C-alpha cells in the first residue's frame, strides 16, 4: 500500500472513530448531572473511569504487540458498546460507576493499537512524505470528525425533546446513536484496516518474551531514555490540564449563561469549533516546525507555555464570547505540538514494544487525568472552577520548561532518526 492509500484508509477510519466520540463530548458531564451527580461525584466517576484505564493500560498495550493491533482494537469497540449501554440504563451512582469501569477498560484495550499499526506500516510504504506530515493530515481528519460529531452531539438533545418520554433524559438519545454507530465502525475497521502479524509473534521462539518482560523493558526505556523520560514528565501535566478543562468547561459555561433552559446546541457549536481549531493546529504544526528549524522540543515548549498563559486568562472570563474565544485559542496552542510529541515517542521506540510504549504514554496521561478528576473536582466545589484552572495553568507553564531539557540533537526530525535508535 502506498503512503497516500495508507493515509486515506487510516484517516477515514479514525475520522469515523472520533466522530462517534464527539457525539458524547458536549453532553457527557450533563448526562452525569441528569443522574443528579454533584461535581464531586462527577470527579469520582471520572477518576474511576480514568483509573480503570490506568490500571489496564500497559499490560493491554503489550497484548496488542503480542496478539495483533487490529484484533485488540476490535475488542475495545465491543467493550465500548457495553459501557455506553450501561450508561444509557444507569440511574444510580453505582450503575454510573459500573459504566465508567467498562468505558475505562475499552479505552485501555484500544490504546496504542492502530497508532502503532499505522507507524510500522508507514515505514514500509513508498513515498516522499515524512511521518510528521502524515500525522498532520490524519489529525486534520480526526479533528474534523470530532468537530462534526460534537456539533451533532450538541444538537441531538434538542431533537430528543420531541420524544422525551422515550428516554430517562434528553441526553440518552446521544447514547443510543453512539451504540449503533460503534457497531458500524466495527465493520468499517474490518474493511479498511488489514490484519497484520503481531510484532512479538514474528520473533523466534527463543527470543519471545512474556507480557511482563515486555512491560518491564518498555517501562525501563520510557523513564531512562534521554528523550522519552522528558516527554513522559511533561505528559503527566498534559493529562492534568486536559482533564481539568474537559471536565469543567460545561459547568463553567452553564454558570455564565445562568439559564437551565438554554439550548444545548451552544455546547455542540463550541465543541465543534474547538476541534476545528485543533485541526488547524495539526495543519499549522508543519509550518510551525519549520519556524523552529525542525526542532520538536522548541515547538512543544513555545506552544505549551503560551497555552498555559491563555488558560490563566480563560479562568477570569465572565461572558460567553470571551470564554469561547479564550477556550478556542487555548486548545489551538495546547494541541499545536501534539504531532511533534508523537514523533518523539515513536522515533525513539523499538518496534517490538511500540504499542506498549504508546500505552505507557497514554497511561501517564490518564494518571494526570485521575489526579485532576479527584483534586480539581473537590477544589471546584469548594473554591470555584476558576481556582482549579488557575492552578492547572501554572502547572502547564512550569512543565513546559521540561522540553528545554531534551537534548537538542535528538529533538529534530532528522536528528532523532540518526541518534534515537
TrEMBL record:
Transmembrane segments: 15-33, 39-60, 72-90, 134-153, 173-193, 265-286, 298-318, 324-345, 357-379, 385-404
PROSITE patterns per UniProt: MFS (PS50850)
Pfam families: MFS_1 (PF07690)
Entry keywords, A to Z: Membrane, Transmembrane, Transmembrane helix
Record Gene3D superfamilies: MFS general substrate transporter like domains
Domain Major facilitator superfamily (MFS) profile, chain residue ranges per copy: 1-410
Domain of life: Bacteria
PANTHER family: PERMEASE, MAJOR FACILITATOR SUPERFAMILY-RELATED, TRANSPORT PROTEIN-RELATED
Name the UniProt record assigns to this protein: MFS transporter
Amino acid at each position: 500500500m502506498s503512503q497516500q492509500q495508507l493515509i486515506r484508509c487510516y484517516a477515514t477510519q479514525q475520522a469515523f472513530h472520533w466522530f462517534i466520540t464527539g457525539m458524547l463530548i458536549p453532553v457527557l458531564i450533563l448526562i452525569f448531572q441528569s443522574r443528579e451527580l454533584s461535581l464531586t461525584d462527577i470527579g469520582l466517576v471520572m477518576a474511576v473511569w480514568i483509573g480503570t484505564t490506568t490500571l489496564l493500560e500497559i499490560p493491554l498495550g503489550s497484548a496488542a504487540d503480542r496478539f495483533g493491533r487490529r484484533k485488540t482494537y476490535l475488542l475495545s469497540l465491543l467493550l465500548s458498546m457495553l459501557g455506553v449501554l450501561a450508561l444509557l440504563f444507569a440511574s444510580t451512582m453505582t450503575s454510573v460507576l459500573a459504566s465508567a469501569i467498562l468505558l475505562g477498560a475499552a479505552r485501555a484495550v484500544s490504546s496504542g493499537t492502530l497508532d502503532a499499526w499505522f507507524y510500522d506500516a508507514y515505514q514500509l510504504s513508498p513515498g516522499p512524505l515524512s511521518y510528521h506530515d502524515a500525522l498532520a493530515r490524519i489529525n486534520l481528519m480526526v479533528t474534523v470528525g470530532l468537530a462534526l460529531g460534537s456539533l451533532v452531539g450538541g444538537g441531538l438533545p434538542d431533537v430528543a425533546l420531541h420524544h422525551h418520554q422515550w428516554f430517562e433524559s434528553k441526553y440518552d438519545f446521544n447514547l443510543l446513536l453512539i451504540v449503533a454507530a460503534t457497531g458500524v465502525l466495527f465493520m468499517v475497521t474490518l474493511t479498511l484496516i488489514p490484519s497484520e502479524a503481531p510484532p512479538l509473534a514474528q520473533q523466534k521462539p527463543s527470543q519471545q518474551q512474556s507480557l511482563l518482560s515486555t512491560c518491564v523493558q518498555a517501562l525501563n526505556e520510557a523513564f531512562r531514555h534521554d528523550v522519552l523520560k522528558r516527554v513522559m514528565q511533561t505528559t503527566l501535566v498534559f493529562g492534568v490540564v486536559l482533564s481539568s478543562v474537559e471536565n469543567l468547561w460545561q459547568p463553567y459555561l452553564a454558570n455564565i449563561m445562568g439559564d437551565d433552559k438554554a439550548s444545548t446546541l451552544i455546547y455542540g457549536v463550541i465543541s465543534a469549533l474547538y476541534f476545528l481549531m485543533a485541526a488547524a493546529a495539526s495543519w499549522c504544526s508543519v509550518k510551525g516546525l519549520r519556524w523552529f528549524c525542525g526542532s520538536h522540543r522548541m515547538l512543544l515548549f513555545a506552544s505549551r507555555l503560551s497555552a498555559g498563559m491563555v488558560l490563566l486568562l480563560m479562568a477570569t472570563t465572565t461572558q460567553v464570547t470571551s470564554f469561547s474565544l479564550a477556550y478556542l485559542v487555548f486548545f489551538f496552542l495546547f494541541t499545536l505540538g501534539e504531532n511533534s510529541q508523537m514523533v518523539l515517542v515513536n522515533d525513539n521506540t523499538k518496534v517490538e514494544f511500540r504499542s506498549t510504549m504508546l500505552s505507557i504514554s497514554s497511561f501517564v496521561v490518564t494518571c494526570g487525568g485521575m489526579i485532576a478528576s479527584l483534586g480539581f473536582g473537590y477544589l471546584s466545589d469548594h473554591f470555584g472552577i476558576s481556582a482549579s484552572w488557575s492552578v492547572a495553568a501554572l502547572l502547564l507553564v512550569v512543565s513546559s520548561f521540561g522540553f528545554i531539557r531534551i537534548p537538542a540533537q535528538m529533538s529534530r526530525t532528522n536528528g532523532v532518526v540518526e541518534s534515537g535508535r
